[in-house]
Backbone:
């Protein structure tokens, strides 16, 4: 029984954080949505931050696993990067980790901020390695900065979500990705094509 | 006297929205920070949404004016786009309009959401025209999609803010911009260099 209640609390919090953000997610809303009693919540978790940390850890783990699956293949580097860009789903909901950065309360919490920071650090490191492989294989110019290109690609995805929410439609996300894929293809060295 | 009180309310709200977001900005916080009395606030504004709309309008007007200044010059298109990317300031605070998209209450308000949407539409239109000029001048390939490249550049800036806040430092923003500038330079047609 206990694990189910615990899991239900984490999953409900994960969804609320994703959809409403941290500040707008009250312990009361978590209880109502999960159907769990207050005593049970405080039996499993010290409080909202503790529960949010576990929920965010779960979102981060899923995100990192998905990125690793896409980026760690034997395909040419440019293809892997373009696949990463085009494999984004659930555009209007955006990134469950990236959206947390809009919440000052998250950035003020060492524990929550560290999860966000380490998630991006992990994906950046994986993506930088892909770019370095692309340089070694002659796809990218030798003076390409792997960390810079990794952050450019991460930014396009995160910013694409911002544009989609601003527009109220996922069209600008699609255009941002198309434009990025075209730039990557244009930057690819002739010798590798 | 009245214009000063009004202006103080708008400026305080603008700052709070930028730093804390819409949900976390209470009428009480606006009163405390501005030193304006409650009666005076409701004399000038119907409520929080009304005041936020005026504050957001002001932020949007400043943002649009700055973008127009950078993008509507006689410089080559690639240079104008790179200037737009590198002229971003106040990285850790981010974009006062873009950050609103993380707030479901803003997206639920027709009036606030329209300001956000129209701001991005305006900058996208201006930037698309720059890309079209670049195509006409032989800087970009004739099959370049002006709206796609415009959204890619907008996304890099908005996403760069997300990465900076996630990292707790503006370094990833700088790297994302550097990577974008390198991609734009690499995509520039040889004939125009």
Residues:
């Amino acid at each position: 029984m206990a694990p189910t209640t615990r899991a239900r609390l984490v999953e409900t919090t994960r969804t609320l954080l994703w959809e409403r953000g941290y500040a707008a997610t009250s312990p009361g809303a978590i209880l109502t949505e999960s159907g769990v009693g207050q005593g049970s919540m405080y039996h499993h978790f010290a409080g909202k931050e503790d529960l949010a940390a576990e929920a965010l850890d779960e979102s981060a783990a899923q995100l990192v696993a998905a990125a690793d699956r896409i980026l760690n293949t034997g395909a040419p580097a440019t293809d892997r990067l373009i696949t990463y860009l085009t494999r984004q789903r659930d555009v209007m909901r955006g990134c469950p980790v990236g959206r947390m950065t809009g919440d000052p309360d998250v950035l003020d919490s060492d524990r929550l901020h560290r999860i966000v920071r380490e998630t991006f650090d992990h994906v950046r490191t994986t993506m930088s390695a892909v770019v370095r492989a692309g340089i070694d294989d002659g796809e990218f110019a030798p003076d390409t900065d792997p960390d810079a290109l990794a952050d450019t690609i991460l930014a396009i995805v995160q910013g694409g979500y911002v544009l989609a929410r601003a527009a109220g439609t996922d069209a600008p996300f699609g255009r941002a990705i198309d434009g990025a894929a075209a730039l990557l293809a244009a930057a690819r060295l002739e010798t590798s094509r």
In short: The CA atoms of residues 9 and 41 of chain B lie 7 Å apart. DSSP finds nine helices and no strands in chain B. The radius of gyration of chain B is 19 Å.
